[in-house]
């Protein structure tokens, strides 16, 4: 597909990034003067970006447009240009980021109303939106990397927004460090591309990827996947995402559910030409997706913290998306469709959870909820719709997009296809289990509230975005799969959709998934709904529950495999550094400092010695010149 | 019979304007009532300088030799004249700042009154403002502009004196620490006279060897005398010494720290930015036009001097505790980096030198950053004037974050960190030197940059990671002039670092000498 220079409104699509960036700059530099209207400005820039993005998308017409911005440096072999790429894929992300972003900004006005640092919160959110838009709009890997680090920074700042809580500070650090591990992969992949191909632009890399040896392409693919795993909380780098729920709930909804954590899926979809060329790396993507899918679903079943359940659910759902894009051409569209619908219902669920926490005095333990349905009707209904969409209740969003992924898995046709499809169906059952458990523990049953808590519905500024997202959760699947097929919109990127030959008839898959889902719901009712929920978690539980509670020992594995050896290595290095390197460096510094003071003695302050030094210099200069020319 | 030389008034217009403004300034000093002099003088000086800048820009693209062959109008001349006029106008703005010093001006009210006398103490607190500094500075700016455009050695010498004499004077005009300031002026004057003598002697020897003071004639004659007459080579050496002195290149740098420290800070800024541009303009013209064909004679010389200058500047800067002195050594190190660019003799489009464009870009970027850094220095004050001792800056980041951030930006630019103008400038001159095979020099330059980065970063560390001192300085609120200077320099430092393409192209187009 040819890239054409951008025209019309799309030529101004850099404004998409510039608007929220300017918002962040004004709010951060403006200081307290902007306290009064800062949240309105922050929301305004994102809404404006959404409107602009919508208009640009309407003008796009399936083209692939290049927005040249400027040449940073152009010298011989090194040619660094900055530009944006506006194509159907990036348009999709622009709409998701700015659309969901706008709703969450509006919600935050209410949610953060009593926080003294609300302006700063909006500044960080704006910064995040700008960086995320740069990530999806850049036309080269360096721009993507800048955006990638930018969202990492914004995520760090927002997780630690309440940094006076030690748990928030620790969680932010954990997220930052685990992301760094992934980022090393992405950076190495970019270096490798530049070393091998001499370019980092998408066009340049994808155009000449066929020239590379198979091993190199596989290496690039695996390194990119490492980056994607870090950002998207995929196995083995999944442990930071649930901890990241220490941040304010709108952050969890926007960054750690709807947008940033899907950047890994974007990366792999964008790099489809690379993965098309390396079946090995693609298989690894598939495996990562399948493993994460199961880990997330199992861990989600035993959590008591409402946000952690949703977080593990996010991990698991992104696992679905990785599984889909790992399937290759038959899965890209299904994965992206699930990404979009997930953006709606998961953001809605988080906002609902935030609304519940708002009502319960920032309580997150579901064992302390119960019986909230009559007290918070709007929250209950919107949350319930999001819940139904997530578990794949027929004809809601998740039903369409999750089924598409499971079908695509079966369509592989081989034994792996059946295994992956089976796992995906099993995970759908687990999803239904833990989500039903969450619903029952929160909204039904006898109230187990802490004394002195009086639940109340949240203000309209919070419920309105929840309602809109609930509408999206209900309708998005139908719209994207049936009414306006995403396949056609994305055809310029991934090629024309082929009439797939189904190994297992879609109706069979749908019925099977629905039955497993219902089984999950019933099991949850048997375990949770019909008996009393103890306020303290029971101690005598099965080993499986214990493992699930500890998220399959991910933290323990990280600690024993990486943290402790890392600490030992650090200690050893510090020792070597102190004794060896520092010795050398300090010696060098001492030498330099010593010669500096010794040389400094020539600076006597007497004009006569200065003149003498000039004379000496002149004699040396003249002598040297004479020696060179006549000698 | 005397033939009138051809005079292109268009080409002379910048000089006429700047020197005209300086002369008008003298008249204003004589006739305008004292209380109205300051605004009038500022207006006259700025009008002249900005007019000079404008008329210079109108000359862009011209290539001619005029005024009887004494004056060159070509790319480098126009680019550097415009740079000098622009930087000069910004310096004048810093001179005109009246809201920082409690006595309303950085300059002494009556320079002739002995320091420390009862009359001096009386004037110390008076708000009388001295305005002679404006015509003097305008003369210096005019001299600098002539310096980079002079196509014969005698004009170059006259320009050298026109730019130097006012500088000697205004160095001694500090309102506070007057003895230090006067000492600086006398030192600068004595050593400057010494250096001028070198230049003049070199001029005489070259005239003796070639029979001409015209650079183009010297070029032909030097090419004919391949192998080099002793007279010519000695003459070249002495000319170079004279020019290197003005550019504060080691080993002719000894005056720099003392004078930078003693002079009033706006004057230091003016010297550091504009004199550097002018001196390097003259060095480029002398070496490329006058001795362009005998490149091999001066090449090893510049090579060696560049190394000495970078090393001396970087190493001596390490142990400085006074910011103005530290910046003086930084200026010496930067002179070495600039010489690296002078060596890039080939590689540009249409036979021009990549080194010329790189050096010119570097001069512009360095000049702007330096002005900015000194402008920040004028803000941070204690009871005794500007607080330039390093220890006073401890913890400034906490007390006044904006000032510290701006200072940090400038220091990063001086250290050559990417995304600042300093990086682009260094990149441009190093690339030119590498293209010409001078990579060992570039290795030395990179090592020197690393050493120099230490003392820049030390200030940043001090500002951000130290506890503020109990009796720390106050940060003044700048008036409109200094605010303007800071806004321009900050913007330029960032823009030339992030999107330098256009200006680099401009410098490359302007790299062709005439003559």
Automatic annotation (TrEMBL), chain A:
Q: Where are the transmembrane segments?
A: 40-60, 92-109, 121-138, 184-202, 208-230, 251-269, 281-302, 309-330, 378-396, 416-440, 461-484, 504-528, 607-628
| PANTHER family in alphabetical order | NADH-UBIQUINONE OXIDOREDUCTASE CHAIN 5 (PTHR42829:SF2)
Give the membrane topology: Multi-pass membrane protein
Q: Which GO terms describe its biological process?
A: ATP synthesis coupled electron transport; electron transport coupled proton transport
Q: Which domain of life is it from?
A: Bacteria
Q: What is its main location?
A: membrane
For the NADH-Ubiquinone oxidoreductase (complex I) chain 5 N-terminal domain, which residue ranges apply? 72-122
Q: Name one GO cellular component term.
A: endomembrane system
Name the record gives this protein: NADH dehydrogenase subunit L
Keywords on this record? Membrane, Transmembrane, Transmembrane helix
Coiled-coil regions listed in the entry: none
Residues of the NADH:quinone oxidoreductase/Mrp antiporter transmembrane domain? 139-423
Q: Which GO terms describe its molecular function?
A: NADH dehydrogenase (ubiquinone) activity; NADH dehydrogenase activity
Q: Which organism is it from?
A: Geodermatophilus pulveris
Q: State its location(s).
A: Endomembrane system; Membrane
TrEMBL record, chain B:
Q: Which GO biological-process labels does this protein carry?
A: ATP synthesis coupled electron transport
The keyword Oxidoreductase appears for this protein = no
Keyword terms of this UniProt record: Cell membrane, Membrane, NAD, Quinone, Translocase, Transmembrane, Transmembrane helix, Transport
- Name the InterPro entries on file: NADH-Q_OxRdtase_suN/2, ND/Mrp_TM
Q: How does it sit in the membrane?
A: Multi-pass membrane protein
GO MF term set: NADH dehydrogenase (quinone) (non-electrogenic) activity; NADH dehydrogenase (ubiquinone) activity; quinone binding
Task: Name the residues that span the membrane.
Answer: 12-32, 39-58, 78-96, 133-149, 155-174, 186-210, 222-245, 266-288, 300-319, 326-348, 360-380, 401-419, 439-465, 477-499
Predominant place of localization = membrane
**EC assignment:** 7.1.1.-
Q: Where is the NADH:quinone oxidoreductase/Mrp antiporter transmembrane domain?
A: 150-449
Gene Ontology CC entries for this record:
endomembrane system; plasma membrane
Enumerate the subcellular locations listed in this protein's record, separating them with semicolons: Cell membrane; Endomembrane system; Membrane
Task: Name the reaction it catalyses.
Answer: a quinone + NADH + 5 H(+)(in) = a quinol + NAD(+) + 4 H(+)(out)
Query: NCBIfam families, alphabetically?
Result: NDH_I_N (TIGR01770), PRK05777.1-4 (NF004441)
Q: What does this protein do?
A: NDH-1 shuttles electrons from NADH, via FMN and iron-sulfur (Fe-S) centers, to quinones in the respiratory chain. The immediate electron acceptor for the enzyme in this species is believed to be a menaquinone. Couples the redox reaction to proton translocation (for every two electrons transferred, four hydrogen ions are translocated across the cytoplasmic membrane), and thus conserves the redox energy in a proton gradient.
Q: How does it assemble?
A: NDH-1 is composed of 14 different subunits. Subunits NuoA, H, J, K, L, M, N constitute the membrane sector of the complex.
Which family is it part of? Answer: Belongs to the complex I subunit 2 family.
Instruction: State what protein this is by name.
Output: NADH-quinone oxidoreductase subunit N
* Record organism: Geodermatophilus pulveris
């Amino acid at each position: 597909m040819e890239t054409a220079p951008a025209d019309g409104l799309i030529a101004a699509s850099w404004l998409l990034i510039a608007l929220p960036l300017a918002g962040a700059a004004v709010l951060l530099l403006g200081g307290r003067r902007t306290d009064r209207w800062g949240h309105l400005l922050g929301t305004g820039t994102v809404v404006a970006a959404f409107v602009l993005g919508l208009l640009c998308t309407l003008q796009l017409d399936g083209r692939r447009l290049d927005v040249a911005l400027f040449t940073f440096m152009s010298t011989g072999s090194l040619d660094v240009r900055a530009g944006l790429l506006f194509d159907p894929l990036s348009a999709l992300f622009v709409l998701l980021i700015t659309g969901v972003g706008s709703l969450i900004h509006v919600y935050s006005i209410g949610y953060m109303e009593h926080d003294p640092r609300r302006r700063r919160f909006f500044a960080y959110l704006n910064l995040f939106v700008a960086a995320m838009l740069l990530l999806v709009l850049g036309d080269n890997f360096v721009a993507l990397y800048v955006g990638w680090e930018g969202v990492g920074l914004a995520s760090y700042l927002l997780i630690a927004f309440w940094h006076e809580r030690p748990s928030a500070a620790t969680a932010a650090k954990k997220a930052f460090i685990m992301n760094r591990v992934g980022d090393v992969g992405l950076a190495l992949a970019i270096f490798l591309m530049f070393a091998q191909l001499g370019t980092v632009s998408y066009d340049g890399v994808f155009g000449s990827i066929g020239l590379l040896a198979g091993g190199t392409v596989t290496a690039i693919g695996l390194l990119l996947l490492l980056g994607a795993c870090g950002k998207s909380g995929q196995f083995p780098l999944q442990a930071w995402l649930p901890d990241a729920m220490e941040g304010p709930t709108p952050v969890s909804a926007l960054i750690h559910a709807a947008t940033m954590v899907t950047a890994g899926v974007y990366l792999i979809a964008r790099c489809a030409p690379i993965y098309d060329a390396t079946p090995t790396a693609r298989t690894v993507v598939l495996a990562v997706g399948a493993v994460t899918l199961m880990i997330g679903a199992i861990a989600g079943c035993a959590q008591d913290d409402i946000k952690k359940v949703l977080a593990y659910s996010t991990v698991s759902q992104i696992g679905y998306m990785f599984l889909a894009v790992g399937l290759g051409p038959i899965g890209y569209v299904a994965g992206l469709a699930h990404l979009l619908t997930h953006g709606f219902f998961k953001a809605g669920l988080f906002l609902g959870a935030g609304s519940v926490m708002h009502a319960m005095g920032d309580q997150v333990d579901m064992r302390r909820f119960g019986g909230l349905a009559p007290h918070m009707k709007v929250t209950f209904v919107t949350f319930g719709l999001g819940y139904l969409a997530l578990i794949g209740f027929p004809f809601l969003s998740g039903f369409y997009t999750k089924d598409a992924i499971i079908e695509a898995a079966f369509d592989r046709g081989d034994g792996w296809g059946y295994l992956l499809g089976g796992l995906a169906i099993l995970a759908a059952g687990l999803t239904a289990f833990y989500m039903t458990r969450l619903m029952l523990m929160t909204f039904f049953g006898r109230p187990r509230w802490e004394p002195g808590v009086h639940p109340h519905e949240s203000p309209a500024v919070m419920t309105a975005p929840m309602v809109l997202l609930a509408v999206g959760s209900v309708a998005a699947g139908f719209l994207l799969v049936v009414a306006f097929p995403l396949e056609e919109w994305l055809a310029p990127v991934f090629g024309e959709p082929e009439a797939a030959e189904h190994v297992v008839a879609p109706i069979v898959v749908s019925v099977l998934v629905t039955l497993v889902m219902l089984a999950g719901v019933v099991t949850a009712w048997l375990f949770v709904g019909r008996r009393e929920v103890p306020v303290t978690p029971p101690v005598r539980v099965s080993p499986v529950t214990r493992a699930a509670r500890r998220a399959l020992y991910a933290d323990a594995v990280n600690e024993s495999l990486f943290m402790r050896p890392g600490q030992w290595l650090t200690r050893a290095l510090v020792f070597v550094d102190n004794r060896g390197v520092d010795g050398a460096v300090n010696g060098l510094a001492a030498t330099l400092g010593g010669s500096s003071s010794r040389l400094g003695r020539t600076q006597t302050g007497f004009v006569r010695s200065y003149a003498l030094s000039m004379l000496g210099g002149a004699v040396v200069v003249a002598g040297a010149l004479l020696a060179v020319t006549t000698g | 019979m005397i033939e009138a030389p051809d005079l292109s008034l268009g080409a002379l217009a910048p000089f006429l304007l700047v020197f005209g403004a300086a002369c008008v300034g003298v008249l204003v000093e004589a006739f305008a009532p004292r209380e109205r002099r300051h605004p009038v003088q500022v207006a006259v000086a700025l009008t002249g300088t900005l007019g000079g800048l404008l008329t210079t820009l109108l000359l862009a693209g011209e290539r001619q030799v005029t005024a009887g062959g004494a004056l060159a109008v070509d790319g480098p001349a126009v680019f550097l004249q415009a740079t000098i006029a622009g930087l000069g106008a910004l310096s004048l703005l810093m001179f005109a700042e009246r809201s920082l010093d409690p006595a309303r001006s950085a300059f002494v009210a009556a320079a002739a009154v002995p320091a420390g006398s009862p009359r001096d103490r009386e004037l110390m607190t008076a708000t009388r403002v001295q305005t002679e500094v404006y015509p003097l500075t305008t003369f210096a700016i005019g001299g600098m502009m002539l310096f980079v455009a002079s196509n014969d050695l005698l004009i170059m010498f006259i320009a050298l004196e026109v730019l130097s004499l006012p500088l000697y004077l205004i160095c001694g005009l500090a309102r506070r620490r007057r003895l230090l300031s006067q000492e600086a002026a006398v030192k600068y004057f004595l050593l400057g006279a010494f250096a001028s003598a070198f230049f003049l002697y070199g001029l005489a020897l070259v005239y003796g060897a070639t029979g001409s003071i015209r650079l183009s004639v010297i070029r032909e004659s030097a090419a004919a005398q391949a192998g080099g007459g002793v007279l010519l080579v000695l003459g070249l050496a002495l000319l170079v010494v004279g020019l290197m002195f003005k550019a504060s290149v080691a080993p002719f740098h000894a005056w720099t720290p003392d004078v930078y420290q003693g002079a009033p800070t706006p004057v230091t800024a003016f010297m550091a930015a504009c004199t550097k541009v002018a001196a390097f303009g003259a060095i480029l013209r002398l070496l490329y036009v006058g001795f362009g064909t005998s490149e091999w004679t001066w090449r090893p010389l510049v090579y060696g001097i560049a190394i000495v200058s970078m090393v001396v500047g970087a190493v001596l800067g390490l142990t400085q505790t006074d910011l103005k002195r530290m910046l003086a050594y930084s200026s010496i190190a930067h002179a070495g980096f600039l010489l690296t660019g002078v060596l890039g003799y080939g590689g540009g489009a249409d036979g021009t030198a990549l080194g010329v464009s790189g050096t010119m870009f570097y001069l512009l970027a360095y000049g702007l950053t330096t002005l900015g850094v000194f402008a920040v220095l004028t803000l941070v004050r204690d009871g005794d004037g500007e607080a330039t001792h390093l220890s006073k800056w401890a913890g400034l980041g906490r007390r006044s974050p904006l000032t510290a951030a701006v200072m940090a930006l400038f220091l990063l630019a001086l250290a050559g960190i990417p995304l600042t103008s300093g990086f682009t400038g260094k990149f441009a001159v190093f690339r030119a030197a590498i293209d010409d095979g001078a990579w060992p020099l570039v290795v030395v330059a990179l090592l020197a940059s690393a050493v120099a980065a230490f003392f820049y970063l030390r200030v940043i560390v001090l500002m951000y990671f130290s506890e503020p001192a109990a009796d720390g300085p106050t940060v003044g609120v700048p008036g409109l002039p200094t605010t303007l200077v800071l806004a321009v320099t900050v913007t330029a430092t960032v823009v030339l670092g992030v999107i330098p393409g256009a200006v680099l192209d401009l410098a490359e187009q302007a790299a062709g000498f005439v003559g």
